[in-house]
From TrEMBL:
<dbReference type="InterPro" id="IPR050383">
    <property type="entry name" value="GlyoxalaseI/FosfomycinResist"/>
</dbReference>
<dbReference type="InterPro" id="IPR037523">
    <property type="entry name" value="VOC_core"/>
</dbReference>
<feature type="domain" description="VOC">
    <location>
        <begin position="5"/>
        <end position="131"/>
    </location>
</feature>
<dbReference type="InterPro" id="IPR029068">
    <property type="entry name" value="Glyas_Bleomycin-R_OHBP_Dase"/>
</dbReference>
<dbReference type="InterPro" id="IPR004360">
    <property type="entry name" value="Glyas_Fos-R_dOase_dom"/>
</dbReference>
<dbReference type="Pfam" id="PF00903">
    <property type="entry name" value="Glyoxalase"/>
</dbReference>
<protein>
    <submittedName>
        <fullName>VOC family protein</fullName>
    </submittedName>
</protein>
Amino acid sequence: MKFQCIDHVVLTTKNLDKCLAFYRDLLGIPCSEQNGRWTIHLGESAIKIHCRPGEYQPAAGVPTAGSLDICLKLRETEFPAGMALEIARNEIADAGWEIVCDIGERTGANGPMESFYVRDPDGNLVEIMSCGIDD
């Protein structure tokens, strides 16, 4: 078998309003609702939001709010050259969110990158990354 990419992952939240305020309003990621089901849209991939563990079946063995660890890649062209990560970090910190781990060099799926970490309202670890170019 050969796979192309991740289509979606599921995020379980304790509070839909706070979840949407973080991803949609703070981070500016498009979100949509269809038949009561919310989706966070990231390019060709998505994060499906479930409001209760096992809300939809089949479900993960132990769907738990706060157990996700994801990395989101910034769209570099939306920022002045070389400033994407610093601007994003400052906007998030200025909005009152604690930066868990500040900007540093790390390794992503495609090699070297820089990133920082913040937690969403459920405690999920959200890494914000930049590799200096858009795909």
